[in-house]
Design brief:
heteropentamer; A mainly alpha; B mainly alpha; C mainly alpha; D mainly alpha; E mainly alpha; B: mainly alpha; 75% helix; 1% strand; D: two-stranded antiparallel ribbon; two-stranded antiparallel sheet; 4 strands; 4% strand
Chain lengths: 488, 166, 110, 396, 519
């Protein structure tokens, strides 16, 4: 009974980003004891190299779309989009990490290895066509993230962040898994397209109640992962407690990947019962936006504020999910890209101003940044304007597309409430601007060090990206729309 | 016979699970959890999943739970003082949970009441061979990728729990 | 509800297994919500995963497929990795705070 | 119905024999070590101290059990029970020989044949940690706790190379059933070289065997790996607070574990009940010959007694041995008894090795012990597994 | 790429270049931005000369695809409604730069750059012919103004800036909902296409939808105008803003609201606008009276002018919702007038603040004796503002009142009250500031105009006079376009209205409506 199962070159190409990243991650682990003391920055460079190579791999894989490994892995536009997105987030996170790690005198090798592994998980998730694969990818991404959240293990905030992230993340995973189990019970498969086929058959109608229960459970699980209300409780603590570059990463990459599978699962597998889950998403979207924005209003810690804002942004993307249309998917993809850029940019500024031991995290510590470092302040302004949704920034078009999708799906009230929410959100983003430009410099600004090249890049690249998305959104949106057509 | 075993071990499992939840001492909870796992392993055997049943014992009961016990001992974690979470949590949580349970049970009963009957030996696909074949053909990719998971776990344990070198 | 005779004749209905699984899952959730020792809370998560595994195995029996068991296999691997990392995190928390009470580990906020 | 009755009889038989063997293993150990150290060993109770085990058992049972005040009673009592339970239950899947047919009834010389038998053994042995760990913890004594922690860490660490070393023969045999593994080792190369996995196959499992044995020492907490109970550091480790029957339980568990691992080694590597050379070359006469010599020696010493008592006891033993010799030569039982003999002989030899090593080697230091497991044993076992896998793959 | 594109592009490009100039080169930045704005102004004059009168439609059209999906066009053009507002923006920008010449010491680079960016947004708003593009420019305007108030404003600048931003933003997101909704229905953002679609019945809206859309647009514009209960941001913003900010805010940005009402609300949703006209008119009248009364009791010059804006803009809204040709014409003309005269007031108040460092009326008195030219110009402006014949406001107010009278005479009475009140508070202000005892502080710190300041006020005074004497330069273009808008709003009404409702303006509209019904 010799088994001969050897992947074809196409299979390997489709899988190449993960291979590259895994190999690189392992390499970093191996090199860590050798070079950690002498060349602490080497690992960052290597990580960027690996991520860039993987991006190339992901793009190359898009040239040969299709399913591989007994249909477990599907490379399509959707997968490629999110792969490139999480890889880009990875690069930006690494860029933003250089200074931070140096300042905190943290180990660099393991940090970057974990980061790469986390990205592996996300790449894997977004290209998966099977719930179990998604589960494994989700866990790879999550477990690496748990560790990253508590990376500075002598820091109490880090500990707490890691613990909360871990406990609630695992809890969510269990729900997700239970949903998968029930779904498997009904349809005898975990492949998304087969589930869809199974549910399309007339006989399946009687099982819709069961499928709805499964969908609800999966929704709970994924809701936790994307920090959509009412499952957002962990997000503020985790984003506040984790090391700043990790928070930047956590608020973007895992979220993007989780949303990717959210869309894939709900639009592919659960399309048949869309009427059932739409109200659920509707409520969650509204709650996320409202809770996120109103809670952010009273925050004084920048990281926590950004955390609540990320909850609110998850709400906007859930609006797109509630629309459950092609255009909604495309809108969410676009929004996630824009959101990732502006959020990482904002966090990069936080990293910059935080100082050793993250002492300067109060909003007031931003005071006088506009005078001290007008360049940095200008970048933050761009990101904040984008977060508010001012035209010519990516955030604006993101919001626009999402609410267009919502209106097209007749979710008028959701759109109105969402947009009013974004007006509320403007208030707390503006508060940052106010402090930064209008207040006199405080202690934090006094000790501010000049921008390092890594951080500079982590600011400028997202800023360029934000403008790019804001001025010529067609490029990204076009790709997103072509891809979105595939997952329906 | 099937019924006898099911009732026996289901009862053990449920009682142990209750014990996990209500025991005040973490060690007691941990051992109760081992009890759950062991009785589940027996049920797995009955369902024709002998390989998984054994792996359940080896990995879960024998490794994961030992790790738990180990950590509990290491930290010398004492019993929890009996001052539960806030009253509202109980007032809200218990009915919601019961409703959740009732819902699932209702739907399961409705959907799968006649889905099949477990008779020992009616399914023999759980041998090591068939599992291995599946793992190395259809599920090769996830199988390989779980190695990354293990790698992360090792790395994480090193990062978080190693001694300071200097 | 199949009558007792049918049970003796046909074997145990699969739905009983599934209900057992649901009960265990709910107990795990209850533990997660009401317990305060971190380790116990974590164990309750493991209990939930075990409950899910039972469902998978039961469904594998229903569908006469091996894949359900494969999933359990993966879940176990994940649970093991999770346990290693989770316990390491708990250790670091304990080292810095000398408590395992989840309510006392809530200092973040402003 | 017959199935249940036969099973019950088998269980009773095995339990009785096993418990006796365990008790006498203690005697053998003391005797062997004594002789290694040029002493007499137990010799007061009964001829050659043969009744010593019995006396020990009576002593332990009748002694007052001390319940220290600080212990956690439930777990304190649960721990020895667990230890014994886990140690004894693993015997249930070990095959001792081929099948027996008595009249209309046919049965295997094995309590139950599980097709994942080896996994079952691993599972049970992995559960064995709980007994030790709990005992250490429940005693509420720092020595005991340290001992418990050490031993759980040690057992977990060594379980890994052990599993790997078990995997290699499994790969070659292509089954997880212990009986099938032994059956796979039947036959001879060139007509006389046994196809035991330690010798033959695509890749001889010598390394595997040694790794297994080393890990087995650690798993059973035997010297040189008996750190959990290191007298000079930890007083007596995890069972320092135990006395009378509870103490005896741990003792019994340790010996039962020894028997188990020796049986596994025999089954996996040493061809189980297959003789060292083919029956055609007279392997069937080994057992009678040994018994005969033993009987002859007894008679001889009975005639020339060293002690007055020997005049009566040794001839009796001699006669028993002769009787056994005759039984072994009785053709109808040969197919049953010969495999049993070979199995017990190999197993006994390995047990002797255990005792021998205890008499010879000093104890490891704790960090050396862990380092050895992870840095040496584990890679070696892994490498061996890889090579074996390759060999098996190429062999196909 | 025609002249209009160029005019819009110059400040945009100028802004980017200004950002590149090193921070130290303050003078270079000033001169550069002034040059940019002057060039823009001159170029925009080319639009006026090139504008073909007698054609109601848009001119200088450029229509190219900006974003392909959803199809968003760079569709800009000028018609009679926007032409003068457009030029007003380009005229006032150099003036705002000039008046800040010496006043702004803190971070001048950003200040001037923001002014140019503001201009870019403003001209874009008036030229945009694509709803989406309109929204983009609309929002762009917000950002520089926010910073202008927040960084260079007075003591309570932060509060004022936030209030300004949030009010406006909240309104504009509603507008965004409406725009998206329209896009989903019509499949295009193109204003003309949507309008013709609505009129031809290709795009149908239910009554509820139309009301919803109307209200969404209306609230956004009403906040900007500001209409009575939504006006509270305005006094704060005006008072706290630097002179240049107040100038741009009062003169141009408020017009964005009224422009929007006339451009979008009325023609696109005629039924809803007719239906809602009664209460809107009431709000406008309340605004007129209330603004005037509150202005009367202000101790602070800027606040006084700010409340007077509320009052004046009430006229504009009144004119628009009278749905008469004269009302429309008057409204548009009043927008321009208000831009010039209130702008001039802010300029002058700014000059005085530069000298005396106070805005409190009580701190002045007898300025006329020390600064006669200043007093003279202020007087002209005051008179223009209260609507003295031969000066600009008179024409606008007259037209509005007449238009209102055509629609409903009762409204006119209330509106006329506003005119009277405005005379009261303006003249009283003038009296308190320029006449009476000259205090020492005033005496020593109140030099007369210098050349730069002359350069600022002369164009404004000229415009006041020109617009007051020869309104025919401006009105024909406006009227043509307004006639078309009026036509559109009626035609549409006739097609869609099925519900019986009380028609406030008995004359024109009913007749026309009835006529078409008869078909």
């Amino acid at each position: 009974m010799p088994i001969n199962f050897s992947p074809s070159p196409d299979d390997l190409l489709r899988f190449s980003p993960e291979i590259i990243l895994t190999v690189a991650g392992t390499l970093l682990m191996v090199l860590d004891p050798l070079f950690a003391k002498r060349f602490p920055k080497l690992f960052g460079h290597l990580a960027i190299l690996a991520l860039a190579l993987a991006t190339w791999g992901a793009v190359a894989a898009n040239a040969v779309p299709g399913a591989s490994f007994s249909d477990l892995l599907v490379v399509d536009g959707f997968a490629t989009f999110f792969r490139v997105l999480v890889l880009a987030i990875g690069i930006l996170s690494v860029l933003a990490s250089y200074r931070y790690l140096g300042r905190e005198e943290a180990e660099t090798g393991e940090y970057h290895a974990l980061l790469l592994f986390s990205v592996v998980g996300q790449c894997f998730m977004v290209a998966a066509n099977d719930l179990i694969m998604i589960f494994i990818g989700l866990e790879i991404s999550s477990i690496a993230s748990y560790i990253l959240a508590g990376y500075l293990r002598d820091d109490k905030r880090n500990n707490e962040a890691a613990l909360k992230y871990f406990l609630l993340g695992s809890f969510a995973t269990a729900f997700f898994l239970y949903g998968v189990a029930l779904l498997y019970g009904v349809t005898a498969t975990t492949k998304l397209d087969e589930i869809r086929t199974a549910l399309n058959s007339p006989a399946a109608v009687s099982s819709f109640a069961m499928v709805a229960v499964a969908a609800a459970l999966i929704f709970v699980g994924l809701g936790f992962k994307v920090s959509g209300a009412p499952f957002q409780v962990w997000a503020p603590d985790v984003y506040q407690g984790a090391p700043a570059p990790v928070s930047a990463f956590l608020a973007t990459a895992p979220k993007a990947a989780a949303f990717a599978i959210f869309f894939r699962i709900f639009l592919t597998a659960f399309q048949q019962i869309a009427g059932g889950w739409e109200p659920l998403v509707w409520i969650s979207a509204l709650l996320s936006m409202t809770i996120g924005n109103f809670a952010a209003l009273t925050q004084t810690n920048v990281k926590r504020l950004l955390a609540y804002s990320s909850v609110a942004h998850a709400g906007y993307i859930l609006v797109a999910l509630a629309a459950h249309s092609e255009i909604g998917t495309a809108a969410a993809m676009f929004y996630l890209a824009a959101y990732a850029l502006m959020n990482i940019g904002a966090f990069a500024v936080v990293i910059h101003i935080a100082g050793k031991g993250e002492r300067y995290l109060k909003i007031d510590d931003l005071a006088g940044l506009g005078k001290r470092q007008p360049g940095t302040a200008a970048m933050l302004t761009v990101f904040l304007l984008s977060l508010i949704g001012i035209p010519l920034t990516g955030g604006f078009f993101g919001k626009y597309y999402i609410f267009q999708a919502a209106l097209q799906s007749n979710l008028v009230w959701l759109a109105v409430l969402g947009l009013l929410n974004s007006a509320v959100a403007a208030y707390y983003y503006l508060r940052l601007l106010v402090v930064m430009y209008f207040n006199e410099p405080g202690e934090g600004a006094e000790t501010l060090e000049p921008l390092t090249p890594g951080l500079r890049a982590a600011l400028i690249l997202p800023a360029i990206g934000t403008f790019f998305l804001g001025v010529v959104p067609g490029f990204v949106l076009g790709f997103a729309q072509r891809s979105a057509a595939l997952i329906r | 016979m099937d019924l006898f075993f099911f009732v026996l071990f289901a009862t053990v499992a449920v009682l142990s699970a209750i014990s996990v939840v209500v025991q005040r001492h973490p060690i007691a909870s941990a051992l109760s959890l081992v009890g759950v796992m062991a009785s589940l392993a027996v049920l797995y055997l009955a369902l024709g999943a002998e390989f998984v049943a054994m792996v359940q014992i080896i990995v879960y009961a024998g490794a994961v739970m030992v790790l738990f016990v180990f950590v509990i001992m290491l930290l010398n974690a004492g019993a929890e003082e009996r001052r539960g979470r806030s009253l509202t949590a109980h007032l809200l949580g218990v009915p919601v949970l019961i409703a959740f349970l009732g819902l699932i049970c209702y739907f399961v009963q409705r959907e799968f009441a006649n889905a099949g009957f477990m008779k020992f030996g009616n399914f023999t696909g759980g041998s090591a061979q068939s599992i291995g074949l599946a793992l190395f053909t259809d599920y090769l990719l996830p199988f390989e990728i779980t190695s990354v998971l293990i790698l992360i776990a090792i790395l994480g344990a090193i990062v978080l729990a190693r001694k300071e070198m200097d | 509800m199949p009558d007792a005779l049918a049970v003796l004749h046909n074997g145990v209905p699969i739905s009983w297994y599934l209900m057992l699984s649901a009960v265990l899952f709910a107990l795990g959730v209850a533990g997660f919500l009401f317990r305060r020792n971190i380790i116990t809370v974590f164990m309750c998560i493991e209990l939930m995963l075990n409950a899910v595994n039972l469902s998978f195995i039961a469904f594998a029996n229903v569908h006469k497929q091996v894949s359900g068991q494969i999933f359990v296999f993966f879940v176990m691997v994940v649970a093991a990795a999770e346990a290693a990392v989770g316990l390491a995190i708990i250790l670091t928390v304990f080292k810095n705070r000398s408590t395992l009470n989840i309510d006392e580990i809530s200092t973040l906020k402003n | 119905m017959a199935f249940y009755i036969i099973s019950l009889i088998k269980i009773a038989l095995v339990a009785f024999i096993l418990l006796t063997v365990l008790a006498y293993l203690q005697w053998v150990e003391r005797k062997v070590i004594a002789h290694v150290q040029v002493r007499m060993g137990p010799s007061r109770v009964g001829p050659h101290g043969l009744l010593q085990p019995l006396a020990d058992v009576i002593k332990l049972i009748t002694k007052e059990g001390v319940m220290p005040p600080q212990v956690n009673v439930f777990f304190y009592l649960l721990a020895p029970f667990l230890a014994v339970f886990m140690a004894l239950i693993s015997i249930s899947v070990i095959p001792f020989g081929t099948q027996v047919t008595i009249g209309p009834w046919t049965t295997q010389l094995q309590l139950t044949d599980v097709n994942v038998g080896i996994l079952f053994l691993l599972a049970v042995s992995s559960m064995g940690v709980y007994g030790v760990a709990l005992a250490g913890w429940a005693s509420n004594n720092k020595y005991a706790l340290l001992g418990g922690l050490r031993s759980s860490a040690q057992m977990i660490s060594y379980e890994l190379p052990m599993s790997f070393s078990i995997a290699s023969p499994l790969l070659i045999a292509g089954t997880l059933s212990l009986r099938d593994i032994v059956n796979a080792q039947a036959g001879y190369n060139f007509g006389f070289l046994p196809k035991w996995l330690i010798f033959a196959g695509p890749f001889p499992q010598v390394i595997s065997f040694f790794v297994f044995m080393i890990a087995a020492f650690a798993e059973t907490n035997r010297i040189p790996f008996d750190l959990p109970e290191a007298e000079n550091e930890l007083v007596a480790g995890f069972h320092v607070e135990y006395s009378s029957m509870t103490f005896a339980s741990f003792f019994m568990a340790e010996y039962a574990n020894m028997v188990t691992v020796c049986s596994i080694a025999t089954l996996l590597f040493l061809g189980g009940w297959h003789p060292l050379w083919p029956a055609a070359y007279g392997s069937n006469f080994v057992a009678p010959a040994i018994l005969f010599i033993a009987g002859a020696l007894c008679i001889y010493h009975g005639i020339n007694p060293a002690r007055p008592f020997d005049r009566y006891t040794l001839p009796v033993f001699g006669l028993v041995f002769f009787g056994l010799t005759a039984l072994m030569l009785f053709p109808p039982v040969i197919p049953v008894l010969m495999p049993l003999f070979w199995f017990l002989a190999k197993c006994g030899f390995l047990l002797f090795v255990f005792i021998w090593i205890r008499a010879t080697l000093p104890r490891f230091r704790y960090d050396q012990l862990m380092g050895f497991a992870w840095k040496f044993l584990f890679p070696v076992a892994l490498l061996n597994l890889l090579v074996t896998g390759l060999a098996v793959a190429l062999g196909h | 790429m025609n002249l209009l594109d160029l005019v819009i592009a110059i400040p945009g490009v100028g802004f980017l270049i200004a950002l590149l100039i090193p921070r130290k080169q303050e003078q270079a930045i000033r001169i550069f931005t002034l040059a940019v704005s002057l060039v823009t102004f001159v170029a925009s004059l080319g639009l006026a000369t090139g504008y073909k009168f007698g054609q109601a439609g848009q001119q200088f059209v450029t229509n190219v695809v900006w974003i392909s999906n959803p199809e968003i066009h760079w569709h800009v053009g000028i018609d009679g409604l926007s032409l003068w507002l457009f030029i007003l923006s380009t005229l006032l920008t150099p003036i705002s730069i000039l008046i800040s010449w010496r006043f702004v010491r803190n971070q001048p680079k950003e200040f001037y750059a923001f002014l140019v960016l503001l201009e870019f947004g403003l001209v874009g708003v008036f030229a945009a012919w694509d709803l989406f593009l309109f929204y983009v420019f609309w929002e762009i305007v917000l950002v520089p103004m926010y910073f202008l108030i927040g960084i260079w404003g007075h003591d309570r600048r932060i509060y004022a800036a936030l209030k300004f931003f949030l009010y406006t933003f909240a309104g504009s997101v509603l507008m965004l909902v409406a725009i998206i909704f329209l896009y989903n229905r019509a499949g295009t953002f193109d204003y003309a296409a949507i309008l013709s679609g609505l009129q031809s019945g290709k795009v149908t809206l239910t009554h509820g939808e139309e009301t919803f859309l109307f209200l969404a647009f209306f609230i956004a514009f009403a906040i900007k105008v500001p209409i009575f209960p939504l006006h509270t941001w305005l006094p704060d913003a005006h008072v706290e803003a630097p002179s240049a900010g107040s100038l741009m805010l009062a003169s141009v940005m408020l017009k964005m609201g009224t422009y929007g009402l006339l451009r979008f609300c009325v023609p696109m949703f005629p039924t809803a606008s007719h239906e809602n006209a009664p209460w809107i008119v009431i709000l406008a009248i309340i605004g007129i009276v209330y603004g005037a009364l509150v202005a009367m009791v202000q101790p602070n010059m800027k606040k006084l002018v700010a409340y007077s804006s509320v009052s004046h803009l009430g006229f504009v809204v009144l004119g628009i919702f009278s749905f008469t040709q004269m009302g429309f014409d008057g409204a548009v003309y009043q927008m321009l007038n208000h831009g010039i005269s209130t702008g001039a007031l802010f300029v002058l108040v700014g000059f005085m603040y530069e000298r005396r460092h106070s805005l409190a009326i009580a701190d002045y008195g007898g300025v006329a004796t020390v600064a006669p030219w200043l007093s003279a110009v202020f007087l002209i402006t005051t008179l223009a503002s209260i609507g003295l014949p031969m000066l600009n406001n008179f024409v606008g107010e007259f037209l509005v009142l007449q238009g209102t009278a055509q629609a409903n005479f009762e409204w006119t009475i209330f509106a006329a009250l506003g005119v009277i009140f405005s005379a009261c508070y303006m003249l009283w202000l003038y009296q308190r500031v320029f006449f009476g005892q000259t205090s020492d502080e005033v005496k020593h710190h109140m030099p007369d105009f210098n050349a730069r300041e002359w350069a600022c006020v002369i164009p404004l005074v000229l415009m006041m006079v020109w617009m007051g004497i020869y309104s025919q330069t401006f009105l024909p273009a406006v009227s043509e376009t307004n006639a078309k808008i009026l036509e559109q709003s009626k035609a549409n009404t006739a097609l869609q209205v099925s519900l019986p409702r009380r028609e406030p303006n008995a004359g024109l509209t009913l007749a026309a409506g009835g006529h078409i019904h008869a078909h």
